[in-house]
Amino acid sequence: MLHSAVPAHQKRADFRAALASGRLLRLPGAFNPLSARLVERKGFDGVYISGAVLSADLGLPDIGLTTLSEVAGRGAQIARVTDLPALIDADTGFGEPMNIARTVQMIEDAGIAGLHIEDQVNPKRCGHLDGKQVVGLDVALRRIKAAVDARRDPGLLVMARTDVRAIEGLDAAKDRAKALVDAGADAIFPEAMTDLSEFEAIRQAVDVPVLANMTEFGKSALFTTDQLASVGVNIVIYPVSLLRIAMGAADRALDTLLADGTLEAEVPAMQTRTDLYDLLDYGSYSAFDGGVFDFSLDGHHHTRA
Questions:
Q1: Which CATH number fits domain 8-240: 3.40.1650.10, 3.40.640.10, 3.30.1490.20, 3.20.20.60?
Q2: Sheet strands side by side (includes 25-28)
Q3: Whole-prediction pTM value?
């Protein structure tokens, strides 16, 4: 009821233990707290919180317009309703190294299990669009160094994302990934890999967990979990998928309403009231409220000394 009973430090420890197990962790992107509950209910390994989704939710493109407060606030809303660890997109860290340090501590306070910071020039672009620019290696390393030094809970996972593959090629991506690990990154997110062999090359280049981004309409084919596991990928995210599916369904339903004057035809595709209440754990709220409403001090006399 209300918030998860699992404290943030435990979620972080669980996340790291799962990563150390060697199995592939699956993190669908939650576009709101309710969808995070559904991700947990279905048995996934964690929840991903996408910057692109957060921007889109605000009616903005993913070009670095969101603020640290918005990202940390949304992250806290999602993290607190699920027992699963949450991994959040921290873009470029929202500024210079001292800003990045503040970003890390605010995200830590939000109850998040891990975050990734990228090496794009600010303002950034979607990682699967052309025209990206990356900062020099020295700046990229300082971003990760600031993030690692700022965390207070050593369990917080600091992941480095690099977009250099699309600009300078795979060898440059491997070299940068190695350097980012040397700077303290706990995991590597190589963006916009073109095929499985490229993920495998990054996997062989570093000795920390590697993430694959399975976003639709991007540079990478939509590999299966078995394919990704076969080349040693440790985490797979589906950042915008649930939002795209939900918005596609909403688009079609509104067309139905315009055409038919009723949503009767769409009812079979809707989440039922019963399923919604079950996902919300409505019963425990009623039980809690009843227990408080019916409480009295009868039989609980306290004698003053």
A1: 3.20.20.60
A2: 25-28, 235-238, 211-213
A3: 0.94
